[in-house]
Specification:
The protein has 400 residues and is mainly α. The protein has a single domain (3-394), classed as Hydantoin permease. Helix content is 76%, strand content 2%. It contains 16 helices and two strands. It has helices at residues 3-14, 17-24, 31-59, 63-66, 68-110, 115-131, 133-160, 176-188, 191-198, 204-233, 238-244, 249-277, 283-300, 306-330, 344-363, 370-384, and strands at 340-343, 392-394. It has a two-stranded antiparallel sheet with strand order 1-2. α1 packs parallel to α10 (204-233), α3 runs antiparallel to α10 and α7 crosses α11 (238-244).
């Protein structure tokens, strides 16, 4: 895959309802402060994301398999399970968000109200998208991103044509630090996935720059659209914006397409993570199973606690990848030891990082919680690694 492939892939992943909705949470800050937090947070978050991608392109390992470098075989099993849970959760959340928007459109256009049906339809489309295989995904994704780019232009026109965008103030308790953190967490949520795709990069630099530019541009744009929509109309649902723009039936296709292009990445990577537990199974087959589970969950899930879900992701994966990045880029550990079952020192530092994350969230620093927690966790691990060198469980080698 080339830099263009990655730019299209990650731009398509970023153009999603979830990103627009999250941007809408920042509305109490106003447009200028909110946009500043979005851009700065995405610079930090997307850079961390791409560092994980570099490990994948250099080792040719899927994302969760790279955790064996630091945590050992059994440690990677634990994180595979956590990642599968996260990805199934994302699959369900995205299907629900997409189905809600589609349902809103069909209610207003045709008076047709059926959330469950739309959840099933979107789940089925994701299933077919994955069944098309890597080559199929590459070709379809390129065409989809062109249409999604048109979506961003239309939605931007709806938002930026309103003269109240830069002056209107909303009430709320969102702080700059909270907004920065929500802007970091979204790219961070892709960290357990990015190496699944950058391992196919033709060159490490192409995978890195293509991914960085595609995700940064797409995600910032979606956040800003959601921010603007929430400021103007008090509603960041893209369906409402598209209906206001008189897109009618086109709005239906745009919402479905944007949901599918993002959610297939979650479902596919859930399947890749399962391979870490079931090495003889097919990635694609497992991804299809994950899609079915996610769609089933979408029918009963409650996504009102969406912000808490994002913080939970940050608490688990920020310290996890801080340890991995420290091992790879600072300590120079570039190859997994098949005999290492558990690196208890790494596990302890990770647990401390999880606890520290929630303490930093309470502090509400201007730089959020993720960045300082990852810096501290990586620093502590790098300094303590020599003293914890013997804190490992290794595979016994039988003598003959």
């Amino acid at each position: 895959m080339t830099s263009t492939n990655y730019m299209l892939l990650w731009f398509g992943a970023a153009v999603s309802i979830a990103e627009i909705i999250t941007g809408g949470l920042l509305a109490p800050l106003g447009f200028v402060q909110g946009t500043t937090a979005i851009v700065l947070g995405h610079i930090a978050g997307t850079t961390l994301l791409v560092l994980g991608g570099i490990i994948g392109s250099q080792t040719k390992l899927p994302a969760i398999m790279t955790t064996r470098l630091s945590f050992g075989v059994y440690g990677s099993y634990l994180f595979a399970i956590l990642n599968i849970m996260q990805l199934i959760g994302w699959t369900a959340v995205m299907i629900v968000a997409g189905a809600r928007s589609v349902n809103q459109i069909t209610k207003m256009v045709w008076s047709f109200d059926h959330m469950t049906l739309w959840s099933v339809v979107i789940g089925a489309l994701i299933f077919m998208w994955i069944a098309g295989g890597t080559d199929g995904m590459k070709k379809i994704n390129s065409a989809a991103v062109i249409l999604l780019f048109a979506l961003t232009v239309v939605l931007s026109g709806v938002v930026f044509s309103n003269s109240e965008l830069f002056t209107r103030q909303l009430s709320g308790d969102m702080t700059f630090g909270g907004a920065f953190e929500l802007s970091v967490i979204m790219p961070l949520s892709w960290l357990p996935l990015i190496a699944d795709y950058t391992r196919f990069a033709r060159k490490t630099s192409e995978g890195a720059w293509g991914s960085w530019l595609g995700y940064f541009i797409g995600s910032c744009w979606m956040y800003i659209i959601g921010l603007g929509a929430a400021i103007i109309a008090g509603d960041s649902d893209p369906a409402a914006m598209m209906l206001a723009a008189n897109l009618g039936l086109a709005a239906l296709g745009i919402v479905v397409l944007s949901t599918v292009t993002t959610t297939f990445l979650d479902a596919y990577s859930a399947g890749v993570s399962c391979v870490n537990l079931l090495p003889k199974a097919s990635e694609r087959t497992l991804a299809l199973v994950m899609t079915v589970i996610g769609a089933a969950l979408a029918i009963v899930i409650d996504i009102e606690q969406y912000e808490s879900f994002l913080y939970a992701i940050g608490s688990v994966f920020a310290p996890l990848f801080a340890v991995l990045l420290a091992d790879y880029f600072i300590l120079g550990r570039r190859q997994a030891d098949d005999g290492l079952l558990v690196n208890w020192g790494a596990v302890i530092i990770w647990i401390l990082g999880v606890v520290m994350y929630y303490q930093f969230v309470k502090l509400d620093l201007v730089v959020g919680a993720t960045v300082p927690v990852m810096i501290i966790t990586a620093g502590v691990y790098a300094l303590a690694a020599r003293f914890m060198a013997g804190w490992k469980t290794v595979r016994e080698v039988k003598a003959f």
